[in-house]
Fold this protein.
Amino acid sequence: MTLDDLPAVLAIEQVAKPTPWNEKSYRQEITDNDKSYPTALVVNSQLIGYIVWWLIVDEIQIQTIAIDPAKRGQGLGRALLTDALNKGLKQGATISTLEVRESNVVAQSLYQSLGYEVVGKRPNYYRDGETAYLMTAHLK
Ligand SMILES: CC(C)(COP(=O)(O)OP(=O)(O)OC[C@H]1O[C@@H](n2cnc3c(N)ncnc32)[C@H](O)[C@@H]1OP(=O)(O)O)[C@@H](O)C(=O)NCCC(=O)NCCS
């Protein structure tokens, strides 16, 4: 992901999340955070999804993932997340963690299919008050 991608990222973000990240948040991931891997999925010159993950020592923290609503259900979310996990594995990661909304059963299903399990609950985690599930996957 580059700064030039931000208009397309923010357009998907607005429709993909109840509490979207703003431009400043993505800008910081691209320019200021050397532990962050913001990645865009571009097909035929069109940005159709993205993932942001951090590598903290041996832990891949998935910060966000979204696919353009018109392109969902085609395996692209799985491909983006698998690619991030493989890249982190090559750099020595052994575990991955993420938070997901209690109501987001689609994302939970994706995560479970890749080996993530719910290991905790974080009440009031999101700005709108929703509970987060903390999920982890052991990669090795
Ligand atoms: C979560 C998200 C990234 C999945 O992307 P996607 O490209 O549609 O997902 P895929 O086609 O790769 O599907 C992967 C798995 O997700 C689950 N899934 C996808 N669509 C689903 C649906 N409509 N109902 C239930 N499960 C679904 C399934 O487990 C699926 O595996 P399967 O195809 O073997 O059944 C996408 O729905 C999205 O952008 N959601 C909005 C943003 C969001 O909630 N992000 C996560 C929290 S930050």
